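Final report, results section. Input specification for complex C-07:
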Amino acid sequence: MKHIKSLKTRSMKKSMVKGGCGECQTSCQSACKTSCTVGNQSCENENR
Amino acid sequence: MRSLLVFGTNNRRWQAVCRPGFMKAGKNLVHQYRNNGYNIVLDVNSGSVHVVDDIVYDIIAMYEDHSREQIVGELSGKYQVSEINEAIDEVAELVSDGSLFAEDVYEDFIMDFKKRKTVVKALCLHIAHDCNLACKYCFAEEGEYHGRRALMSYEVGKQALDFLIANSGSRRNLEVDFFGGEPLMNWDVVERLVEYGREQEKIHDKNFRFTLTTNGVLLNDEIMQFCNREMANVVLSVDGRKQVHDMMRPFRNGRGSYDLIMPKFRKFAESRKQTRYYVRGTFTHYNTDFSNDVISLADEGFEQISIEPVVAPADAPYAIREEDLPVLMEEYDKLSKEIVKRNREGRHFNFFHFMIDLEGGPCVAKRLSGCGSGTEYLAVTPWGDLYPCHQFVGQEKFIMGNVWDGVTRSDIRDEFKLCNVYAKPKCRECFARYYCSGGCAANSWNFHHSITDAYDIGCELMRKRVECAIMIKAAQAEDEDPSVLREDVQP
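Structure output:
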């Protein structure tokens, strides 16, 4: 496309199918302890 | 959705595209903003991110409720008509493929989500309700958490690990954070619990991820070596510049702690090869120019940095005020621009709140469930009481049970279980809802006495951070592929 560059992103809609394994880190266990940071995380499911 | 067949000049195929002006009206389906010279379009419900030129930026603002003829009419004084039509076709393609103005399909999913069986997979062990510093903003009241000083016994800690294993269902990855107060004041128990955890994980096919938060005062080589073997992550508390740190994090005698801890933290970070740790600070009303604290830590050689806003009662002198927000927004912008610059110079450092994984981020289930407090994540006091998280410890109405009897207050657990972005009215209108996931329940409680409200200042900061994080990704994409749109900016 000439006017638009789309960044590669994970489809949220598709993640409804294989998601929900729960193996990812609980957000507050990382750095923060005071701000919920789900958006900072990565998925740890290798079969997503 | 009404479609129109157009002939794509790039791919030489007929394709169905969605006509402008026939969109289902919805709020915040798309969030578009300009930052550091980039025009960024975030499609909220698909998670798609597009970097666009000025023509498309203007078109998208009108696309939902203007026809093609109206859009051309409005913009023909600014751009060539042929360019406008070409750009409209590209926008329509995105709409067709579900990456722009995507519908919210998750609200139906939430019904199944609410019925989910929750397990416990993470504990925050309060190894010590005591501390050897007197930090002025401590939500734990210098480690005491509104109560008496105490150290967790090995027996209580062991029972906590047994409780976690027994209630973890089929989850293999279990997290245990050694917290406080200051956990190094009870280091012997930490070591013994890690040893116990390692034995138990073999028996029960679990994988413990141990983490530690420390103020660094008691850190020594032996502790560092143990952590490097056993701790998946360590969080090292330092606020940034010496004068900032020493003002807010003194010893009880009033002396600053910066000079003591910094050499240890530098050594620790290097011994972990600049990974699997964070130096983690707090900014307050006293240092709204906090980007300087981040840069100070980066210039000290740290590559994993987090500086986060203080959470405080509204009347605390160090609390962040609404009038601080314009300065704080500028600081996030300044910081993200500096990170882009340093990335290009090969002097990268990671700022936690700008981390975002667009390709491999959390699934929708995770984005809906949030931080897991009160359900999959619980805090344990030195006496074995269970709380929804470390922030609620000391507020006795939130005691959920104990490590022997388990969760006895399923009503509290259910309240937290049902807490998600669709249960929070403010989240329904917010473009950042799938990154923030509803925010911190404790913040909401402290400011509104409800866990389904939102701490408004926190929300403003969160939205800004998401915008900055995505801008950094746009800049990285441009550096990787120079054919992107911005001819005016050289990498």
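Chain B touches chain A through 92 residues (CB under 8 Å). The two ends of chain B are 40 Å apart (CA to CA). This concludes the modelling results for the funded period.
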